[in-house]
# Entry
Amino acid sequence: MDGKITAILNQEGFVAARGCAFKGENVWVLRTRWGIPTVKINGMEPNALARRELLDSGRSG
# Structure
């Protein structure tokens, strides 16, 4: 989902803090810092990819 958000931000002309195009990592960092959860693609359960990203990054929820 971050990739889709990234594409829309870039398509609409938004730029990241340093004036370059958004990347998926930018959206993930912003969501994480602001406490915005990922879209639930399977109801109320955590998304498998989001869980894997948290484990891979060494962060705990």
Observations:
- The radius of gyration is 13 Å.
- The CA atoms of residues 10 and 21 lie 6 Å apart.
- DSSP finds three helices and no strands in the chain.
- Helices lie at 2-11, 24-34, 48-57.
